[in-house]
Amino acid sequence: MGEEPEAWLRPHLGALEASVRAGFRFSYLPALDDVLAVQGIRVQDGAMDMYLAQSAFDALAARVRIDDLEFHDSPPPLWHARGAVADVVMELLALPPHGSPGAPSLARSRPSELWIPGDSLN
Q1: Could you tell me the mean pLDDT of each successive run of 10 residues in the chain, 122 residues long?
Q2: Would you say residue 21 lies in a domain?
């Protein structure tokens, strides 16, 4: 068995593990052999939840409507947060399902750093 991660890293790894259990799938940007960032994506209940983690303390998470992805190059998020992986991923996982009471429903301005599938990485 490998070494245990350092204590400061455990909450961030725990958030990533929770997202795996919640159905997120991953991209490694730009590629698995040269990872600069990890992107998690889950499509559920008419919305796409996503996060982009560039380090343990630099992550951006958002929820967008699937319908907005189909009709806009740069869809506005219904919700977004930036901060440490442990914080933003757990906040994203705590959101009620899209369309249910208490779920975010009003579009907000999109953070410029949010990468949407289909966007150029440049």
Answers
A1: 84 96 89 83 96 94 90 84 97 97 86 54 42
A2: yes
